[in-house]
Amino acid sequence: MTGTRVVPGAHRVVVVGAGLAGLAAALHLRGAGKEVTVLERADTVGGCVGTYTGPGYEIDNGATVLTMPELIADALAAVGADAGSVDPPLRTTRLSPAYHARFDDGSTLDVHSDPDAMTAEITRVCGAEEAQRYLRLRAWLADIFDAEYDRFMDANFDSPLDLVSSPAAVRDLLRLLRIGGFGRLGTQVGRRVTDPRLRRVFTFQALYAGVAPAQALAVYGAIAHMDTTLGVYTVEGGMRQIARTMAAAFVGAGGRLHLGSEVTALDVDTGRVTAVSTAAGDRYACDAVVLTPGSPVVDSLLPARRRRRTLAAPSAVVLHGTVPTAVSGAWSARHHHVIDFGGAWERTFAEITRRRGRGRLMSDPSLLITRPALSDPGQLLERDGREHEPLSVLAPCPNLDSAPFDWSALSGPYRRELLAVLESRGYRGVANEFRVDHVDTPATWHARGMIAGSPFAAAHVFRQTGPFRRRNVDPRFPNVVLAGSDTVPGVGVPTVLMSGRLAAERLGVPRTRRTREPGTSRLH
Questions:
Q1: How far, in Å, are 156, 169, 170, 382 from residue 161 at the CA level?
Q2: Range from 2-11, 50-59, 92-101, 468-477 carrying the lowest mean pLDDT
Q3: Lower CB count within 10 Å: N or C terminus of the chain?
Q4: Which of 331, 344, 428 has the alpha carbon at shortest distance from 104?
Q5: Is 375 exposed, middle or buried (0-12, 13-18, 19+ CB in 10 A)?
Q6: Binning pLDDT at 50, 70 and 90, where does residue 334 land?
Q7: Is this model's pTM higher than 0.70 or not?
Q8: H or E segment to which residue 420 belongs
Q9: What is the DSSP string of 448-459?
Q10: Rounded distance, CA 445 to CA 452, Å?
Q11: By C-alpha distance, which of 101, 27, 93 is closest to 236?
Q12: What's the distance, Cα to Cα, between the start and end of the chain in Å?
């Protein structure tokens, strides 16, 4: 199902932003024969899946988890390319396990996407009966994904009435209702598995949607399905290679890409954007524009409108740097992705999601630790005469609406607090040996134009989900289309890639292939 509104006569298109949404839109547009120019204010491509440069190395500065890489393949195929034919090529490998989970009671669990491996692991940790419950949960998560993919995720919306616009749409909506998709994710998962550790493993993904797991809609079990069934992938050379490969394919197909070009104004004539202007004084005439930055930037470019208050997702503090392998090699958690759960699960998520200035830092933090060199040894480096590996540590935290902290003063003390927590949990030597070269805080994301300083965009509460999320068209400007995490379908690497394609469809690009056949959760 797609929305009915299409922008006619859009041949010259300017795409603002070279993140994954913008590059996906650009590839699909260019593949349809459009003249496409991409303007990016940074000096590198990638946006929220970009790059930091440290002394003698690079490290991903955004998303570290890749699911559904076939969406990248679809974008490349639009211009006749594939992951191996572009320079640089894109090489992905499915991780096994996808995650390694550590709990406050000292137990650990490897999260496998293979059902047999996961059943064996749950039997080891939780017992055979819980393993059978897991299989029922796995089937339910697949049902949720199948029921919502076409209607809620891979779809444009002209209005909420699109959900009941046809017998097929009504059928899928009723299916979602029947299987509990509009209940609470935590409650639905809790009905199917009893071990609290498993409940955490299959609900923490709700944070990607910007909602505490206990409060998230069950439809966001689709994210857990992507992580725990469809698989998590690693990218040779880091997640940053995705954007580089997509950009190379776009330029190779005749697209124009300008880095260091900050868009400062849109020229509007009788309700249509006729040109895009940059801070350097350049002007790009166009028939249509795709805007991919965060809502604050988009709203600064478009004339004022009456806006509904948007609830932002929680934010995050992320530490980026390197650690000597002589130190990290002694850690027991030797996996690409480690989720280190604190004990006070529901309380700490309640702390970071309080509204109107009442948010707090996690008193017992749950952390995502990423060690990409464990699956990609090419990312190892020498520093100060010793071998180091890149290391990132992500701690969820309140956004600036929830807690308007002075992060210029808080960043240093909180970094030390997080490292002390890791030290106490068995990551010996991290407090002294982790060379932190970059610290991202809500202030970082705010400076990049993200709502309330959150990299997770608008929270996926019901009134900001599916057809109720900010649409990718604005009736005041018929040739402006939005893409990215603040519009449909939402936040996350797969969804922003979808949003780029959906934007291209709004500009008249027909859908020539599907990543997923309807009625099945098997992607190909």
A1: 12, 10, 10, 58
A2: 2-11
A3: C
A4: 344
A5: middle
A6: very high
A7: yes
A8: helix 407-424
A9: TT-GGG-TT-B-
A10: 8
A11: 93
A12: 20
